[in-house]
Amino acid sequence: KGVEAGARDLGEDFFAANKGHFWGMVETRPYMRARLGLSHYLWAMGQEEESIKHCEALLDLNPNDNQGVRDILLSRYLALGNDVGAARLYRGYPDEWSAAFLWSRVLLDLRRGDPAAAMASMGVAKKCNPHVPAFFTGKGKLPAELPETYSPGDRDEAVLYVAAFAQA
């Protein structure tokens, strides 16, 4: 209902005129937050494709992705085996250097049946965040509570990555 109310309040003309830079306008943020919340709810309720459509729409409205939707969308694409969607997302963010994108590249390379590319991707991913492999090999244990924040390359980023992408 919040998403519907926000869409009504903003209006179709507003969406058409401002697509691509929604987050820059404060009046859009409640709508954007509600839509992301709806996406999370739909995912939790097993309505994965609907959840993904909302994430894709959010990125269309705000390609700068101030909400971090691209990581969420990538994890959902990979969890469902939608490697085509994941590859499309990579093309949209070619300079992304997060653990989410770099470590997931290893998975995509393996799924494509290209172990040489996976090894090369792993080398890059390890430089970005060397803490991820410990969780995959069982040498590291995820904490009972997830961290609220992280810095690029730190253990907390690895924890959040593994927790978000475990299903994939």
The radius of gyration is: 17 Å
Q: What is the count of DSSP helices, taking H or I runs of 4+ residues? A: 10
What is the helix content? 55-70%
Classify the beta-strand content into a percent band.
Answer: under 5%
What shape does the CA trace take? elongated
Order of helices and strands: HHHHHHHHHH
Note poorly predicted spans. Answer: none
Average pLDDT rating: 96
Query: Which class of secondary structure composition applies to the elements?
Result: mainly alpha
The quaternary state of the protein chains shown equals single chain
Cα distance spanning the termini? 31 Å
Report the sheet with the most strands, covering strand number, pairing sense and barrel closure.
Answer: none
Number of strands: 0
Description:
It is a single chain. With 168 residues, the chain is mainly α. The protein contains ten helices and no strands. The chain has helices spanning 2-10, 12-18, 29-44, 48-61, 69-79, 83-92, 99-111, 115-128, 132-137, 155-165. The two termini are 31 Å apart. The model has no long low-confidence stretch (mean pLDDT 96).
Task: Please sum up the structure shown.
Helices cover 66% and strands 0% of the residues. The chain has 168 residues and is mainly α.
Descriptive tags:
168 residues, 10 helices
Topology readout:
Elements: H1 2-10, H2 12-18, H3 29-44, H4 48-61, H5 69-79, H6 83-92, H7 99-111, H8 115-128, H9 132-137, H10 155-165
Helix pairs in contact: 1-3, 3-4, 4-5, 5-6, 5-7, 7-8
